[in-house]
Write a structure and sequence with these properties.
179 residues; two-stranded antiparallel sheet; alpha+beta; single chain; 5 helices; five-stranded antiparallel sheet; 7 strands
Length: 179
């Protein structure tokens, strides 16, 4: 079972934190801090699997971001290593070359993708193509909804403009002025 998913930059600033076990904020901060200290000091040639207390930390480093999964002993290290890659691949396809700024400015979309992959510490879907198709379908629905709102908004604007014009004409007529 996945206990936590941590994504932080090379300076240790968290970009995504998702804990599937209930634990105190202090323990969460400790895991983040110690994971960063351990992972950031490792050589690029070093193994990406680390024993850490009751967890195994499995990580991958992409550009300025570390993706760290804290898992229990029942999970396969190599499997989790590949899941991290699939998650990043999905982000990369969605954002067309994902970068740290996408995590900052589009955290809602990143969390949506994360929710499509994982639920309750378990992997829900492994295929980036299936997940991206679900996200595209959601975007289509949102655009349809916003189209309806735009149409309603234009009708409201038209009604307000008509009322404003009528009010303007009444004021001009009543006070014999040109506005």
């Amino acid at each position: 079972m996945i206990k936590a998913i941590l994504v932080f930059n090379t300076r240790g600033q968290p970009r995504i934190l998702r804990f599937f076990d209930s634990c105190s904020t202090e323990l969460q901060q400790k895991l983040l801090r110690e994971s960063y200290q351990i992972v950031s000091k490792r050589d690029m040639d070093a193994c990406n699997f680390i024993e850490y207390h009751d967890y195994k930390l499995i990580y991958r480093h992409y550009a300025t971001l570390y993706f760290v999964f804290a898992v229990d002993s029942s999970e396969s290290e190599y499997d989790m290593y590949e899941v991290i890659h699939m998650f990043v691949q999905c982000l990369d396809q969605n954002f067309e070359n994902v970068c740290e700024l996408d995590f900052i400015f589009h955290s809602d979309k990143v969390n949506h993708i994360l929710n499509e992959f994982f639920m309750g510490g378990f992997i829900v879907e492994r295929s980036p193509d299936v997940i991206l198709n679900e996200i595209r379908a959601q975007i289509r629905i949102e655009r349809q909804d916003s189209g309806v709102l735009t149409q309603m908004g234009s009708k409201i604007k038209s009604a307000v403009d008509t009322k404003t014009e009528k009010f303007k004409m009444d004021v001009e007529k009543k006070y014999d002025v040109k506005l």
